[in-house]
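Residues pack. One example:


***
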Amino acid sequence: MEQKKNWSQSIPLKQQIKIIKRIFSFGSPFKKKFFTGIFFGILLSVTNVVLPRIIQIFIDDYLTAETATIQIIALFALAYFGVTIIKIIVWYLNLYLFNLASEQTVENIRNKVFEKLQTLGMRFYDQTPTGSIVTRVTNDTETIKEFWEVFLTVLQGIFGVLASFIAMALLDIQLTLWITLFIPVLLIVIWYYQKYSSAIYRSMREKLSVLNTKLAETISGMSIVQQFRQEKRVQKEFDETNTSYFTSRYAMVKANALLLGPVINLLDALALVVVLGYFGYDALNGAVGVGVIYAFTSYVQNFFKPMVRMMDSLSIFQDGVVSSNRVLAILDNQELTPQQDADSHATIKEGKIEFKGVSFSYDGKTNVLNNISFVAYPGETVALVGHTGSGKSSIINVMMRFYEFFEGEILIDDISIKKYPIEELRSKMGLVLQDSFLFYGTIKDNIRLKNTSITDRQIEAAAQFVQADSFIEELPDQYDSRVIERGASYSSGQKQLISFASTIVTDPKILILDEATANIDTQTEALIQEGLEKMRKGRTTLAIAHRLSTIRDANMILVIDHGEIIERGNHNDLISQKGSYYEMYHLQNSDVVN
C-alpha cells in the first residue's frame, strides 16, 4: 500500500530540476554536437522569419502597386526558393547533430547503468525483481532518448517564439503586446499539466515494471505453470496487472487530450481573431497592406505553433523525468558488493581457510550464522551438511564475498579476506553451484567465459579432467556446439559438467562446491566422481553436500543447524557419535535400500 502511495505522488519541481541537471551531465562528452545542433536551430528560426517577410514585401511593394515584372517575379521566386533550400539544409543539420548526440548520450547512460548493476551486491538482487531491472535498463533508458528530443523541440520552440515575436514587433508593436496577453494563460496551463501529469507518469512507469516482472516470471516458470495447471490463475493475475497499467495509460491519454494541443489551438484561434479584428478596425479608417496582414498572421501561427509542439512534448518530458529518476535510483544505490582494501596487493599462495567467530544476517536483524569457527588447511576438504535453511549456503556467500559480514573474521593464508583484491579472490577461488547457468553461445565460450588467455587446448584438457569430453566429443560440432538460452538443450548433468570444466580451466587454489552433484543422475554422478577427486587434489575445498555418501572422505565434516555448528569431525567420528549426522546418513541409506 505504501508503494502504491508513492507511485501516485508527483515529483516536486525542485527535484525535477536536479534530475534534469544530472541527465545533462551524461551528455557532456558530446556537447560539441549538441551546441552545433543548437546553432543550426537558431538559423532555422531565422529562415522561418525571413520567408513570410519575402512574401510580404512582394505583395505590398510590387503586386499591390502593380509594378511587378517578370524579372522581379523571378527574383522573388528565386529568393524564396533559395531561402527554402537553406532552411532544409539547416533543418537537416539541426536534427542530425542533436539526435546523434542524444543517441550517444543514452548509450552512455545505458552502459553506466549496466556497469553499476555489476557492482551492486546480491542483497539488491534479492530485493529487486528482475523484470523491474530489465525495464529500467531498456524501457526507461529508451524513454530518456525521447526525453532528449524534447529539449530539441523546446529549443526550436523558444527560438521560433522569440524570432516571431521580434518580427511581429517590427511590424506592429501595439498588436504584438495584445498577443502577449495570451502567454500568462499558457503558463498556467503548463504549470497545472506539469503538476498533474508527473504523478500519472510515475504510476505508469512503476506499473510497467510490475507488468514486465509478471511476464518474465511467468515465462521463466512456464513449465511449472503448465505442470500444476495454473494457466487460469496466471492469466487472471496478468489480466489484472495489464488492466492496471492500461488504466494509468488511459489517465495519461485523457490529460494529454485535454491539456495539450486543444488548449494551444484555442489560444492560436483567439489570437488570430484579435489580429483580424485589429486590422479590420484599421481598414475602416484607411487602407491596410495585404502583405502585412499575411506576414502578421504567419508570425502569429509561427508564434503559437512551436508552443503546440512544446506542449505536446510535455507528456514525453514528464515521462522522461520519471524514467530518469528510476534510472538514477540504480546509479545512486549504495547496496554495493563488499569492498576490499584498495591498497592491498596480497596474493593467495597456500589456500588455508579460517573462520573466526563469524556471524551474519541478511536483513541486519536476524542472524543466519552464529559464531562460525573452523579451519580448512591447504589441500583439505571441509564439508558442510545440514537441513535446508540451516545456513550452509550463507557460509559460502560470505566466503565468496557476495555479502558483507560484520562480526568475526575470515582469513585466507592468515590474512583477512578483506585485504585481498577482488580480482585475486575471483581468480584463485572456483565456485560450482547446484544450478548451473550457461550463456548463449558455444560450449567453448561457456568454458572459456570470454577469457582470451585460455587456449582451446586448455579447454579440452579441462573437459577431459572432469569427464565432460565423453558427451562433448559425441556432438556434431563438439566444442563449437551451440548453447541456447540457459543451456536448455542439455541435461542437468551435462550442464553441470560444463560448469565443472569452466571452473577447473582457471586452475583455482580454493574450490567451492555448493551441492554440485545434487541435480545429477546416479550414472552421471558416478562418471564425475573421479573428476571431482582430481579437482580436489592439491586444492582446499569447501563443499556443501546433499548426498552424504559423496563426502565420506572429507577431512572434516561440519553439521550446521540454525546457523550454528553442532557437530564436527570426519565421517567415522560423526557416525560413532550417533548424533544428527548419524541420523541423516542412515536416513539416506535406508531410503536407498527401500
Remarks:
- The chain has a mean pLDDT of 78.
